[in-house]
Design goal:
This protein is mostly helical. The chain is built from 16 helices and two strands.
């Protein structure tokens, strides 16, 4: 017996050309709607793409970001810009650019933004001052994040006596009067060859021995903990090397100090190193507290329990599961730390314990202009305006990133 298809099914199985065209148009419409930011569908975008999509809606934050990009380019190309503008180097003194009374002259064709009381060009000093401010801000912020995130991760994840020890050290650092600490350390280390004369060779050897001993103890402790938890077979040689890796960095640093530097010298040198050390000491406890609080809540999450049940090591859990969830608060904290560091550097230079003359700094320029502000307004105005605009731009970008990283913000 031969089976024949049902006429109804054959009739419905064949679509008319106009119906096929209508369906194709509808599918294209839905695809365009999904690609549109205002569509009902969910666009297939990466987290970075979603971040940029939300951030670019804030026109003020975009303008601030454009200003910061221009500022960074100006700081990097400061020698070229000074040369193209026909200005003098920032440390060149000349009485030929002072008036007949030996006072600073105002803005003009010879000096675009005027001169200071020593005849130096304010325009070139403002440009070079941007280099100092941004260098201190970025380097000190990187060190603050490195120390603060590491301390917060370890303290929040392991808990117990490790958390107690690191938390008390953080509390001690927070208890210090930051400004007095900065003044004392800056005044002691900004004169002569610096302060804390040490033997770098001996310190290097000590770091090598300490790194090897602490690394071995940490590997043994991790193995014994896994044995007590019944996961001794999962603790392989690769896991042991991963646990020893942070202490290997300490050993490498000791080798550099012992064999590359060697000899005696000041631990903290005058100038920018002093400022960077002071700013780092003052800033890392706040980041450590923020990260620790986030890790305390994240380590109890189900994804961490699942990773631990699958036999993942602590290093893998910290770096692959917990740390990616800290990116948003770290980014927001960074945008707030950078302008604070710029103001801190300007305050230290204003008080005379930061960047030393003749190196240009906005804070030092404002400090030098306090005695002649009534007659040479330009010497304080231009570095002050540059400082205000830079800090304001970083804060506006930080607000825009905070709104863009908020998960409650619509896409």
């Amino acid at each position: 017996m031969t089976l024949r298809p049902c006429p109804r099914r054959r009739r419905w199985g064949r679509l008319r050309p106009e119906v096929i065209a209508a369906r194709g148009t509808a599918q294209e419409h839905h695809a365009d709607r999904d690609r549109s930011p205002s569509g009902v569908g969910v666009p297939a975008r990466s987290p970075l793409g979603l971040l940029w999509l939300r951030f670019r809606r804030d026109r003020v934050a975009l303008a601030a970001l454009a200003f910061l990009v221009v500022l960074v380019l100006v700081a990097l190309l400061a020698p070229l810009i000074v040369s193209l503008a026909g200005a003098r180097p920032p440390d060149q003194q000349s009485t030929a650019y002072l008036d007949e009374f030996g006072s600073a002259t105002g803005p003009g064709s010879a000096n675009l933004l005027g001169t200071d009381e020593l005849g130096r060009d304010v325009f070139s000093r403002v440009l070079y001052g941007a280099r100092v401010s941004l260098l201190v801000a970025f380097v000190s912020t990187a060190l603050i994040l490195l120390v603060g995130v590491a301390v917060g991760l370890v303290a929040g994840y392991y808990g117990g006596w490790v958390d107690t020890l690191l938390s008390r050290v953080t509390d001690v650092m927070l208890a210090f009067p930051v400004l007095l600490l900065a003044l004392g350390l800056g005044a002691a280390c900004s004169i002569g060859a610096g302060c804390l004369i040490v033997n770098y060779g001996r310190i290097g050897v000590g770091l090598i021995l300490a790194g090897a001993a602490l690394g071995g103890l940490f590997v043994l402790w991790a193995r014994s903990r896994d044995r007590r938890a019944g996961n001794a077979e999962l603790h392989t040689a690769r896991d042991a090397l991963a646990n020893f890796a942070p202490f290997a960095l300490l050993i490498a640093l000791g080798a550099v100090l012992a064999y590359a530097v060697g000899g005696r010298g000041a631990l903290i040198q005058p100038g920018l190193p002093v400022v960077i050390v002071i700013v780092t000491l003052a800033g890392w406890p706040y980041v450590a507290r923020i990260v620790r609080g986030q890790v305390l809540s994240l380590r109890e999450g189900e994804f961490v329990e699942a990773a631990r049940a699958l036999g993942a090591s602590d290093r893998r859990i910290l770096l692959r599961h917990i740390l990616p969830n800290l990116v948003a608060p770290i980014i927001v904290a960074t945008t707030l730390i950078i302008p604070a560091n710029i103001l801190f550097e300007a305050a230290l230079s204003f008080l005379g314990v930061g960047v030393q003359d003749p190196q240009a700094s906005w804070g030092a320029m404002i400090s030098d202009a306090t005695g002649t502000f009534d007659t040479a307004w330009w010497y304080m105005t231009f570095p002050g305006v540059a400082l205000v605009l830079t800090v304001l731009a970083f804060n506006l970008v930080g607000d825009g990133l905070q709104d863009a990283l908020d998960p409650r913000t619509g896409t």
